């Protein structure tokens, strides 16, 4: 791992890898498996401005047991602004620990974990100029998965993004929700389908 990783990020990555290894070696039962799927996400920024949500398209890999699971997802959105001579591409990558609250065909779940949010700004015409940035942030939320058979599931979830639990500079009158979710910078609605093996 690069030396630029902080200790909490390194510890989180090691925990996710350990959980993935545990799930991969678990004895198979009907309610678990490894799955690959596609999804659509709508992201809304936490801002006072009246802005529309932005649609992202992506996919996920899920490793599930009866009660816990791991999801790694990547999404992408690209938009061109001719007047500014810019093309902006956003690529969030999230690793989520899933806690399943039921074991039937309809299974609610809680999720949370780290996310890396990459943004690339490139010139459309003229000299090839690009600026790339990557930000780190936590996310948490919940959702529902409906299993339409042993090998296929449809899910939807909602997650807060860019949670920053270590921010001590919050104003005292920031409000109840901001007190519970310091550093909240956006929301993400996701609908997807997964094929399990």
Topology:
Blueprint: H1 7-25, E1 33-45, E2 54-64, E3 68-81, E4 86-100, E5 106-123, E6 130-147, E7 152-163, H2 176-180, E8 186-196
Antiparallel strand pairs: 1-2, 1-8, 2-3, 3-4, 4-5, 5-6, 6-7, 7-8
Question: How would you describe this structure to a colleague?
Answer:
The protein is mainly beta and 197 residues long. The protein has a single domain, classed as Porin. It has helices at residues 7-25, 176-180, and strands at 33-45, 54-64, 68-81, 86-100, 106-123, 130-147, 152-163, 186-196. An 8-stranded antiparallel barrel has the order 1-2-3-4-5-6-7-8. Strand 5 (106-123) and strand 6 (130-147) form a beta hairpin. The chain is elongated and about 55 Å long.
Number of helices: 2
Strand content is over 45%
The helicity comes to 10-25%
Using the coordinates above, name the CATH class. Mainly Beta
The total beta strand count reads 8
Give the C-alpha Rg: 18 Å
Shape: elongated
Distance between the termini: 31 Å
Quickly give the structural class.
mainly beta
The total tally of domains equals: 1
What composes the largest sheet? Answer: 8 strands, antiparallel, barrel
Unreliable stretches (pLDDT < 50, length at least 5) are 1-5, 22-31, 165-178
Under CATH, the topology can be stated as Porin
The assigned CATH architecture is Beta Barrel
Strand order of the largest sheet: 1-2-3-4-5-6-7-8
Q: Report the mean per-residue pLDDT as an integer.
A: 79
The H-and-E topology, N to C, reads as HEEEEEEEHE
């Amino acid at each position: 791992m690069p030396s630029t990783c902080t200790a909490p990020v390194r510890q989180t990555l090691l925990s996710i890898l350990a959980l993935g290894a545990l799930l991969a070696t678990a004895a198979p039962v009907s309610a678990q498996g490894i799955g690959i799927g596609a999804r659509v996400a709508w992201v809304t920024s936490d801002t006072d401005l009246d802005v529309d949500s932005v649609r992202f398209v992506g996919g996920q890999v899920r490793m599930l047991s009866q009660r816990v699971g791991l999801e790694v997802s990547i999404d992408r959105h690209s938009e061109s602004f001719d007047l500014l001579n810019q093309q902006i591409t956003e690529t969030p990558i999230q690793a989520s620990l899933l806690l399943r609250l039921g074991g039937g065909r309809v299974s609610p779940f809680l999720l949370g974990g780290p996310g890396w949010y990459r943004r690339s700004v490139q010139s459309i015409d003229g000299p090839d100029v690009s600026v790339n940035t990557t930000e780190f942030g936590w996310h948490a939320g919940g959702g529902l998965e409906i299993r339409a058979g042993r090998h296929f599931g449809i899910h939807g979830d909602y997650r807060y993004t860019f949670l920053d639990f270590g921010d001590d500079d919050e104003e005292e009158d920031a409000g109840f929700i901001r007190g519970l979710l310091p550093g909240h910078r956006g929301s993400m609605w996701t609908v997807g389908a997964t094929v399990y093996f």
